[in-house]
DNA sequence: GCATTGCGTCAGTCACGACTTACGGTAAGT
DNA sequence: ACTTACCGTAAGTCGTGACTGACGCAATGC
């Protein structure tokens, strides 16, 4: 289940911040470490989790490693959430209709 | 930031299972506890987290407590993810166009 | 009134994850 | 070749969260 990994990855605040920075524009590890309060190895570990969740992808650039947004993780999360979306609307519709019936019956 | 609570809530596998059961149809705590491997107090604690994340809502029914789907949490998660959705498509489009240019230049 | 059912909460245990420092390895500059 | 920049991983610490059993409380049935 990929969606589980995505939610786990986005659950941590620091990791979300790193993900948002990467999503804004592709960045190197050192670049990310400068903009975050944690150490560089911590950033590497967070990127590992994000990469496993298919939220980011990495490419080598000389001695640097540039991380960019990977939409596969977003797709997985969106797909999982949309399974409940129709049902939520449906339930709301049912409740609304029931309320309308009660309203009519009360007169 | 509500989305953080939603992702944290959906990160745990047991909690996702409980959430899916509630989303399928409103259920009591004992009903949920019967369909899950953990104890009833654990289910209560999971429901607490899901409720704080606005993923489920509870209503009293005699001595029972019926939990149902709350779409506010889903909305928050969807809103957060969609911030990156346009960008992901944009980046993909740029990459595709760059590849197309390379293809043309190579001839 | 008393027992029962259904839940929430408290206290305690235990595993996991977030973080740091230290280390090793690769690519570029001089 | 030597240094420097950049990065991933290993080892260890520490806090947090997932879980259980015990307890207390409110609502229903007899």
How are the secondary structure elements laid out?
The structure is a homodimer of 107-residue chains.
Chain A (H helix, E strand, L loop, with lengths): L1 H10 L1 H12 L2 E2 H6 L5 H13 L3 E6 L2 E6 L1 H36 L1
Helix pairs in contact in A: 1-4, 1-5, 2-4
Chain A binds a DNA duplex (30 and 30 nucleotides) through helix 4.
The outline of chain A comes out as: elongated
Oligomer: homodimer
Number of structural domains of chain A? 1
* Sheet/helix structural class of chain A: alpha+beta
Order of helices and strands of chain A: HHEHHEEH
Instruction: Bin the helical content of chain A.
Output: over 70%
Write the CATH architecture name of chain A: Orthogonal Bundle
What's the pLDDT, averaged over the residues of chain A?
Answer: 87
Our count of helices of chain A gives: 5
* Main sheet summary of chain A: 3 strands, antiparallel
**Roughly how many Å is the radius of gyration of chain A?**
21 Å
Strand content of chain A: 5-15%
CATH class categorisation of chain A: Mainly Alpha
End-to-end span of chain A in angstroms?
A: 51 Å
Strand order of the largest sheet of chain A: 1-3-2
Q: Quick one: which chains have the greatest interface?
A: A-B, 24 and 24 residues
């Amino acid at each position: 289940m990929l969606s589980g990994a995505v939610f786990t990855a986005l659950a941590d605040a620091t990791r979300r911040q790193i993900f948002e920075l990467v999503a804004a524009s592709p960045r190197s590890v050192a670049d990310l470490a400068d903009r975050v309060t944690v150490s560089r190895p911590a950033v590497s570990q967070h990127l590992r989790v994000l990469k496993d969740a298919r939220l980011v992808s990495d490419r080598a650039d000389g001695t640097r490693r540039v991380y960019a947004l990977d939409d596969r993780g977003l797709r997985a999360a969106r797909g999982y959430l949309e399974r409940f979306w129709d049902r939520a609307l449906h339930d709301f519709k049912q409740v609304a209709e029931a309320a309308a019936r009660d309203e009519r019956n009360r007169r």
